[in-house]
Specification:
By secondary structure, the chain is mostly beta strands. It is 9% helix and 52% strand. It is built from 2 helices and 9 strands, in the order βββαββββαββ. Strands 2-6-3-5-4-7-1-8-9 form a 9-stranded mixed beta sheet. The longest helix has 7 residues, at 30-36.
Amino acid sequence: MLRCILRAKIHMATVTESNLSYEGSLTLDKEILKKAGILPYEQVMVSNLNNGERFETYVIPGKKGEVCLNGPTARKGVVGDKIIIFCYGYIEDNKIKTSRPKIIHLGNGNKILNIR
């Protein structure tokens, strides 16, 4: 059986931009995406700590420190909001015990503080 398990989490990202006129998605610093193992256009769940909004979208690679809510997601937060980005994957039962999510904690300027 396959189970949907947390594969990666980017914790305490700060929204740097909100672009309502873009077609849609979440722009994230490409280096953070790489370290998290999240691919461009991969689906993510986003939770906004400031207003409680939670939504699904996909990611596109951006510039250093960039976290931009695009299109309709721009209505889900404002610049300065703290968000958590979750990426899930389907894992076979026999591999769950050895599978651990990659968790990235961000600080000021969306700089990586640590990776677990």
